[in-house]
What we know:
About 30% of the residues lie in helices and about 30% in strands. By secondary structure, the protein is of the alpha+beta class. The strands form two sheets. Strands 2-3-1-4-5 form a five-stranded mixed beta sheet. The protein has a two-stranded antiparallel sheet with strand order 6-7. The longest helix is centred in the N-terminal third of the chain and has 18 residues.
Amino acid sequence: MNESVVIVDRSSIQEGKLDAVRDGMKELAEFAQANEPRMIAYCPYLDEDRSQVTVFQMHPDSASAEFHMQVGVPLFQKFVDLLKLQQIDVYGEAGAGLIEQLQHKADMLGGAPLAISARRVCSTGLEGSEDAGAGHQAMRHHSMRDGRLHLSQESS
Length: 156
């Protein structure tokens, strides 16, 4: 499986826990930047009333997403009393190991359903080429402002 994998999860923030969620997301983003060089993007977003957080992450393949799930477990556990996971959407060919890890995360954070969309409707032409992820390798996590993680482009 060489197809990119996108994971989007949505969670409601427990009453009075917004600051802790922001701190936890910042810690998770910094951890991913330092320890997950293959991850293409990790972007948490707050909704208008700051009661829900949506996390968008993109990986070059299922193995990268599985690695994120393995190394991130200690940080995910910090969110147990902060969030109630509502939904996890997975786009692309997720391996069985990744699906199992995502189900474990969903169970840990409130039993949210998984929705897996493995079949792509069209292609950009970049997928499957050796350089498909190369252009994304320069993307790095930058900072969290206004409830969103901002990415900066680094020259390679």
